[in-house]
Amino acid sequence: MTIKQAIKYSLIYILTILFGAFIAFKVWWTNGDARFLGIIAFFLIGFGSLFLSISLTRIIIPTKTDFSFSTLSDKKKYQILKDTVGSTKVKIISASYISLFLILFAGTAYKLVTSLNKYEKDQLKTFGRLQKVRINDIHFKGKGTPYALFDFYLDGKKYSNDLNPKNYSIGDSATIIFSTNNTDIVKWEEDFDKNNE
User: Fold this and answer.
1) N- or C-end of the chain: fewer Cβ atoms within 10 A?
2) Would you say residue 174 has pLDDT above 60?
3) Three-class SS state of 161
């Protein structure tokens, strides 16, 4: 990978990370099959971060020898690069791309989660509505995580959602708060502190 190619690919990988973050933002509160897209979103963020770190390393550390992900991940190619540019420079290259990957991935994930939490709080503060619901069922997702299933209503339309059951049982009443602007955003009233910034 030449420096020109590294710049071009860097832009593509930045777009990949942003696309992954966009998908995660869209499916964060949804139930059912759409949640699977959240896994794909974090895969895109991880993939984009890894390859962006290598492209940036290629731009930051000048070498006459081109290198790419296949060079750094293949034992034979890595040894050839080591023999060509020297052991010290290869260690700097390796440390740089690993450090950049961790910074990019962790930084993106942290920013995404904090943005999602802020958006949720803003939605519930601005558009939040309280409603008493009845627990219809306690069901399990995956290998044993229980969720309390309930229905709620907005403008005559029925919505279903589920939350951690706490101490609720089937038939119990509970109060939820949900956003009238985004009905996927639902919390137990007791878990929402409108004064918490």
Assistant:
1) C
2) yes
3) strand
**Tens digits of per-residue pLDDT, 26-38?**
888 776 666 677 7
134: confidence class by pLDDT, cuts 50, 70, 90:
very high
Do 13 and 96 have their domain in common? yes
Cβ proximity of 159 and 151 under 8 Å: yes
What pLDDT, on a 0 to 100 scale, did the predictor assign at position 142?
Answer: 66
**How many other CB atoms are there within 10 angstroms of residue 15's CB atom?**
11
With CA atoms as reference, report the closest residue to 41 among 55, 54, 27: 27
Residue 196 lies in a domain: no
Give me the phi and psi of 159, to 5 degrees please. -125, 150
Q: Closest by alpha carbon to 58, among 104, 97, 98?
A: 97
Q: Select from 93, 118, 143 the last residue of a domain.
A: 118
pLDDT above 80 for 153:
yes
